[in-house]
Amino acid sequence: MSQALTYADLARPSAKRLALAYDLGLIAVGSLLVALSATVSVRLPFTPVPWTLQPLAVLLVGALLGARRGMAALLAYLAEGVSGLPVFAEGSFGIAPLLGPTGGYLVGFVAAAGVTGALAERGWDRRFLSTWAAMALGSLTLFAFGLAWLSRFTGWSGVLAAGFWPFVPGDLVKQVLAALLLPAAWKLAGRARPGSGGP
Hints:
Layout: H1 16-37, E1 41-42, E2 51-52, H2 54-65, H3 67-82, H4 96-99, H5 103-120, H6 128-154, H7 156-163, H8 168-189
């Protein structure tokens, strides 16, 4: 299937230097969006994993920027946190969050943005059901990374209760929200390429 435009491609300059500056700016803005989403955080008493708006921001960054820029934005976000900026959940920073119980989720951000970005590049963000499917696959990718690492701290017997089931309802709401917003925005833009819709 040929590659479809992402939102970020709509205004991308044709000149190489301007295009590079444009891409770098979007990557920086994407990392900032994820950092801002981390400020909305709720500590749950029965799990070391806090509830945040980060998963929604990660999936949207991937869908809006595409796979490469989306993953680069999340790598930049991780680099900012490791370098000492308090951009992780609850204002944390440094290498400790990557090595702690939530480290798998942080690494999974990069992969999740890549999944939703790659699917958006195939037109999956143009219709409600395909957008929802893209968001769900991105979310499952994030959970796969997060749970695999979290199991080191909780054991496999307790990992779903600590890192999956409490977050499913909120994730479903976020997925539906994205599935409503992205196709509606494409319709407003009037730029959906005919025949580029997903499954």
